[in-house]
Structures are given as C-alpha cells and as structure tokens.
Design a protein that fits this description.
Oligomer: single chain
Number of helices: 11
Radius of gyration: 18 Å
Structural class: mainly alpha
Strand content: under 5%
Distance between the termini: 60 Å
Order of helices and strands: HHEEEHHEHHHHHHH
Largest sheet: 2 strands, antiparallel
C-alpha cells in the first residue's frame, strides 16, 4: 500500500512534469527533449543500481515502478533537466557551455533534497556518505547525468535534425558516459580528500565556465521556474513537517540557500559583480 508521503511525492513530481510539458508544447524539439528524459532517468537509475549497488528504493512503497526504480524518479529527472536547459536558453548561455550550467542547475536541486529524501525513506545509501549520509559520488552522478545529456543534445543538433532521434541518441551516449565517469571515480577517487578535490575542482571549473559567458539576465517563464520551486518547497516542507530540522539544523540553511539560488536565477538577477562583468564584456 502506498503511504501518503509517497503519494504526495508522486503528485508533486507529476505537477512539475506537467508544468514542463505545458511550457514545451507545441515545440516538437522541446517535447522530444522532455519525453526522452523520462526513460533516460529511469534507465540510468537502474544501470547505476545494477553496476554499483550503492543505494536502493523501497519499491513496494511507490505506486508506479519499473524493475527496481520508481517512475517518479524518471519524472523528476525529466522535469529538472528540462527546467535547467530552458533556464540556460533564457540566460543566453552559449551552447558549448550549457552542459556545465545544466549540470550545476541539477546539482543545486539535489544538494538540498537528497539528505532530506533519505530521512523521509524515499531511498537509502549503503554505506552512508559524508554529506548528511549522502556519498559525494551521488553529486558527481547528478552533475554527469545532466551535463552529459545536455552535451549530447547540443552536440548532435547539427547532425541529427529529427528531435526524437536526437534525444534517443543523446540518452544512450549520456548513459555510457555516466557509467564510464562513475567507474573512473570509483577507481581514482578512493579517499574522501580525493573525492572532495575532484568534485570541488569540477564544480569550480564549471562555475568559471558559466560565469565568464556573455549572459543575459532575463526573467524565466513561470512554468519553468515552478519546477525547482516545487522540489525545494516540497523537501523544505518535509524538513520541517518530519522534524528533521531538529537533528539536522544545517540542512535548513542549505535548503534555503539553494532556494535562494533558484529565486535569483528565475527573477533574472544574479550578484551585481557578475552582472557588471558580463555587461562590460558585451559592451
């Protein structure tokens, strides 16, 4: 029997996916990106579970599942990837730099929700990691999932004109890249300091790549902006509703900070120093 908390999670994810769908319609290209992101999300979760066996879902508690993966996970991946890509478009992030932006965008959602999700019982890690029980490899995985799919989609734009075919090839290429990346992480980043160094270096490099682009700070469509707001809002509600804030008060600060990032992006405003630099370059 599906517990109410899991039903609410499904409702929230479907609402986010519906918002993305309405924004995408009637563009065939956007619809293809969104539609293929659902099976992509489910497939990557199943492959990672089979290959690395680090986490599991209590599938009996979810309403809709495919093998070991709840469909709600695929819905979430699709909505977040779509919102990240559309946000990059609205900010005029150049195509070559969009993978870095979308990777960071996805990560800013996960860093706030994953530690809450494991305490709500949505999934579990074995063994627990250093980030409130979440392994650092999880964050590398989130970044790669978003960045590689975006990179393949952008890279194939001039080679494959049919959106559905391009999305399918992008998903396959990204899955292969994800497994390879996580395997290299397993072989090379064998200690916590190394993992922090690798992940921190990757994120710092990505931040520099995005920040030095010639960005335009325009408001994001409300439907697109509603996707990360829904996820942040839902997990903030769990944070307080389940009493998690009492034992992990730092998570409140993290969640609010990431919600602030969402608000800044979707209001078309970023720190004034960054705006000044980008405007001076465009002038």
């Amino acid at each position: 029997m599906v517990r109410p908390l899991f039903a609410l999670n499904l409702l929230m994810s479907l609402t986010a996916l519906a918002a993305a769908f309405v924004d995408a319609y009637p563009s065939r290209e956007r619809l293809a990106f969104l539609a293929l992101a659902v099976p992509y999300g489910v497939a990557l979760e199943q492959l990672v579970i089979l290959r690395f066996a680090r986490y599991r879902y209590p599938v009996d508690d979810f309403l809709l599942t495919v093998a070991d993966v709840p469909l709600v996970i695929g819905f979430g991946w699709a909505a977040i990837l779509y919102a990240g890509y559309r946000t990059a478009e609205r900010l005029d992030v150049s195509p070559a730099r969009r993978p870095f932006f979308v990777g960071l965008f996805a990560l800013h959602v996960d860093v706030a929700i994953d530690a809450v999700a494991i305490r709500a019982g949505f999934w579990s890690w074995t063994p627990p990691g250093v980030w409130f029980g979440v392994p650092l490899g999880n964050f590398l995985g989130w970044f790669l999932v978003a960045a590689l799919f975006t990179a393949a989609w952008v890279g194939l734009r001039d080679r494959i004109r049919r959106p559905a075919v391009r999305a399918s090839v992008s998903a396959v290429a990204a899955l292969a890249g994800l497994i390879a990346g996580l395997q290299l992480w397993t072989w090379g980043a064998t200690t916590t300091p190394r993992r922090v160094a690798v992940l921190g270096g990757l994120l710092a490099l990505s931040g520099v790549v995005v920040a030095t682009d010639d960005l335009s700070f325009r408001p994001i469509p409300r439907l697109v902006g509603s996707v990360p707001v829904l996820y942040h809002g839902f997990y903030l509600a769990l944070l307080f509703g389940l009493g998690i804030f009492r034992t992990e008060p730092v998570l409140v600060a993290v969640s609010l900070a990431m919600l602030g990032v969402t608000a800044a992006l979707h209001a078309g405003r970023l720190p004034s120093s960054l705006v000044t630099r980008t405007r001076s370059r465009s002038d």
